[in-house]
Amino acid sequence: MSKSKTKSQTGEKAHSFSELYRRHVNQVYYYIYSRVQNTADAEDICSETFITALETRHKLRDESRFKPWLFTIARNKVNDYFRRVYRQPRSELTQKNRR
Question: What's the pTM value of the predicted model, to 2 decimals?
Fold first, then answer.
């Protein structure tokens, strides 16, 4: 009996998360796009944001704070993106154009 209850609870959580995803995905995407100005990168970061939210949802103490929590994750993912971009060595062509 406990296995079926666990499956039922898991199904409910997945359903509720998919509803939260549908409700917030556009806002999160446009926020990220406004920061990175690149469609492909914004899509990737948006996906990473929701994966992280799904994996760490158990850490959210107050469900009513889901949206601000989600946008905090998105902001951190964007910051990680810019750290990666600025740490990459510049190519010779890029360096020559800047001189």
Answer: 0.76
For the stretch 66-83, pLDDT in tens is 999 999 999 999 999 999
- CATH number, position 31: 1.10.1740.10
Question: What residues contact 7, with CB distance under 8 A and at least 6 apart?
Answer: none
On the 0-12 / 13-18 / 19+ scale of CB atoms within 10 A, 23 is exposed
Give domain status of residue 14, yes or no: no
Contact 14, 50 (CB under 8 A): no
Q: What is the pLDDT of residues 46-68, one digit of tens each?
A: 999 999 999 999 999 998 999 99
Q: For the chain, where are the E strands, in sequence order?
A: none
